[in-house]
Every structure is written in structure tokens, then in C-alpha cells.
Amino acid sequence: MTKCLLCGRYYTAKLSFTSLFSISKCQEGGICPNCLSKFDPVPAQHCPICYGKAENNELCLDCRNWRQLYGNDLLSNQSLYLYNAAFHDLMVNYKRYGDYYLSYVLQTLCSNQLNKIKADLYIPIPTSSEHIAKRQFDTISAIYDNLVPLTHMLSKISGFGAQGEKNRLERLASKQTFFVKENFKVDRKSYRVLLLDDIYTTGRTLYHARDALKKVLPNAKISSFTLCR
Ligand SMILES: [Zn+2]
Ligand SMILES: [Zn+2]
Question: What distances in angstroms separate CA 157 from CA 81, 88, 133, 175, 224, one per listed residue?
Fold first, then answer.
């Protein structure tokens, strides 16, 4: 029996042949079918660039917006779940109340899919130092740290407020606050870079992160992964 990380009930986890022989990082617990059913996976029909809502696999509104700014150099993003009420509650408890334990839930929700994406550098979106001080941990790194080797290359200028506290227009108008840490040693070969964040809302944060990275890694192939879209 496995204890569900979210509701605490015991359930029988389906064991695959390989999981009998490998020690999974999430073996202490999983998410029971009932809790899992509250999360909405991104449907098969989605924007081919960012996994957003779109009809007939056409570009979503956000990507059409970004096309005006970036032309065809759009950021290819993969997301797993839609931002529904269950996800909202999970993220509020995780971020607002600093519930570190929920990082295991988020890891369980994304580990299989993330393991399929191969990159040379996995770069988390940095949390501002004020937020780390408030919650005592970095909410993005805490999700991905156990799953892939992280390269903490980006930093954030403090004092600009969190994207989560802004409305859509304020988010889109927000200025670049990311920079590559000084003296960060990378050779400039072409790299496959995967940016990691929790939620893709307008894309503003991830495009800013890509802009900052491109200054030092002009040949990198940069894409992104988020739990939610
Ligand atoms: Zn449960
Ligand atoms: Zn899109």
C-alpha cells in the first residue's frame, strides 16, 4: 500500500515491471487516483508552441502576441496540466503558506514527463531573495531539484514584486528583471537549455529569462517546461 501525499489515504499503487526493480525518487508516496483525477491534463488539442488553449492546433492568443515581438523565434514550451481549481489550491498552499511538503506532490505530478526531456542545462526560473526569505525556500528549485541536475545561472533583481500578484496587463508590461550571474562559466557551444517554471501564464517571465540567457548563450536552443498552463 502507498500513502497518498495529498489526502493521506492508503491506496494500491499500480506497479510496472520496471518499478519493481528500480528505486523511484517518489517511492515514499504518490497521489491516489481520486486526488489525481482532480487535476486536468492539457488536452491533446493545444497550441503547438506553448500548450495553451487553441482550436485546431492553431497558435493561441498569447503566442500570436509574442509573434509580434519575436517574429518566428517563439519559445517552445511544454506544460502538463491546466490551471484549474485543484491546481490553484495546491499552488496557494505551496507558495503563500510556504508548505515545503507540497513540493513532493508537484514532483510526483511531473517527474515522468520531465524525465523524457533531455537537455544539457536545466535552468530554474529564480525566485527573488525577498520571497526566499519569506518562505524559507526557493519554490521552483524545490520542485525540480530532485528530478534533474539544476544549473542556477539566472538571478533576479529584487524589489519588483512577484508576477503572481499582478494582473494580466501588469504581467505583460513587466520589465526584464533577470540576469546571468556574474562570472558564471559556460562555454558557448550550442546547448540544449530547458527553462523550468511552475506556471506559464502569459509567457512574459519565460521570454524574459530566455532573453537574458541568449546574451551569454547566443547559440543555445532554449525551450521551457512548466507544470501548468
Ligand atoms: Zn489522495
Ligand atoms: Zn501558444
Answer: 29, 27, 15, 11, 21
Residue 161 Cα to ligand 2 middle (Å): 25
Residue ranges per structural domain of the chain: 1-37, 42-228
Mapping DSSP to helix (H, G, I), strand (E, B) and coil, where does residue 79 land?
A: strand
Instruction: Give me ligand 2 centre to Cα 71, in Å.
Output: 13
Residue 21 has pLDDT above 60, yes or no: no
Residues with CB under 5 A from ligand 2 (ion): 47, 49-50, 52, 60, 63
- pLDDT (average), residues 158-168: 72
In angstroms, what is the span from residue 60 Cα to ligand 2's centroid? 4
Task: State which fold the 42-228 domain adopts.
Answer: Rossmann fold (3.40.50)
pLDDT digits (tens, 9 = 90+) for 37-80: 999 999 999 999 999 999 888 999 999 999 999 999 999 999 99
Task: State the distance from the centre of ligand 1 to the C-alpha of 37, rounded, in angstroms.
Answer: 9
Residues 6+ apart with CB under 8 A from 215: 180
Angstrom distance (rounded) from CA 113 to CA 164: 25
Task: List the one residue out of 229, 216, 3 whose CA is nearest residue 105.
Answer: 3
Ligand number nearest CA of 31 is: 1
pLDDT band at 131 (very low <50, low <70, confident <90, very high): confident
